[in-house]
Amino acid sequence: MVEKINKILLIKLGSIGDVVNTLPLVNALKSGMPEVELGWLIEPKSYPIVEGHRSVDRFIIHRRSRGIRGAGDALKEIRDFKPDLVIDLQRILRSSFFTLFSGCRRRLGFDWKRCKECTWLFTNEKISPGDPKAHMVFQYLEFAGYLGLADPEIRFYLTISDRDREEAAKLLLQEKIGKGFVALNIGAAKPSNRWPEEQWAELAALILDRTDRAVILTGGSEDSGRGSSIISLVGNEDRLLDFTGRTSLKQLGGLLLSADTVVTGDTGPMHIASALGVRTIGLFGPADPGRTGPFNHLNLVVRSGVSCAPCGRRTCPDLKCMEEISAETVYMKIFPGN
After folding, report:
1. Do the first three CATH levels of 7-146 and 162-334 match, i.e. the same topology?
2. pLDDT band at 2 (very low <50, low <70, confident <90, very high)
3. Is 129 helix (H, G, I), strand (E, B) or coil?
């Protein structure tokens, strides 16, 4: 007899994009098992984008910067939560530590072929073998199927608060920009996913020369140098604005909601924009868009078509897969037929 599940703990610590792609599973579990209390172990970098999410009853924050103390605090909260089922979606040794020592008898994970760092050793239940090249949204949803929730509707329910929208609107108002601009999200955590600054500048110049749209550069504080470089390459243009490092994660979401189109590499804000339903054009080189592309806008992905891509490498001495994506090609994707 299968024991009743009262509490489920999801372990998904990682990147912003991975966290966003987990939301359809979260919503499927809450919709299909509304009586179950759903917890989520997450790290501070990604937590702000899902803070207060309607389908999660409790977030447990693993503050990795605090070392052993941070891990101990998180583990104590997990044991206080007393989950009946732990689902390890992360598949790395760090997530396996929390899975193994959660105090939970049922520990569910991916099939061994899709695990990393031998993490299949730390779970005692596995979902059926599946396609490792399927989009991660579908791979995560396999856990819902394992629990008897067949063919759930795919919903993100990623919401931006009124306050964050207002803060984004204030930024636009200060610069006398309304809705209908093109956002160029110029950064990416992985160097190999970054489009060259010269091509971002060429794309911005094409938009400014051929249309009446404003162009806004977005990204984190770590992208501010790239933003300044792009502004310098294009020259002084009233309709070209650098917003890198000027917003929180959810304020960035509020900003993107006002854009006509977002152009971005494979990075967290790409997934945020697509989940929010904003028209999102993803520029892909070494990453496989079929697996990690903007889920709602896979038809808008731009690739160079070089034979070595996708290779999945984090760094590369010859990034021709990104460099050979032309600004003109991206422009025509933004404004087809123009």
Report:
1. yes
2. low
3. coil
Give me 169's structure tokens: 């609107």
User: Whose structure tokens read 């502004």?
Assistant: 231
Distance of CA 149 to the CA centre of its chain: 24
Annotation: CATH topology of 162-334? Rossmann fold (3.40.50)
- Residue written as tokens 């090249």? 133
Task: Provide the whole-model pTM.
Answer: 0.95
CATH 3.90.1010.10 fits 7-146, yes or no: no
Placement of tokens 């971005």 in the chain: 264
Q: Where are the domains of the chain?
A: 7-146, 162-334
Task: Please list the residues that pair with 185 across neighbouring strands.
Answer: 218, 264
| Spatial separation of the C-alpha atoms in residues 283 and 278, rounded to whole Å | 16
Convert the pLDDT of each residue in 10-61 to its tens digit: 999 989 999 999 999 999 999 999 999 999 999 999 999 999 999 999 999 9
* Nearest Cα to Cα of residue 121 among 133, 135, 132, 107: 107
Tokens in use for 181? 């601009």
Query: What integer is the mean pLDDT of 103-111?
Result: 96
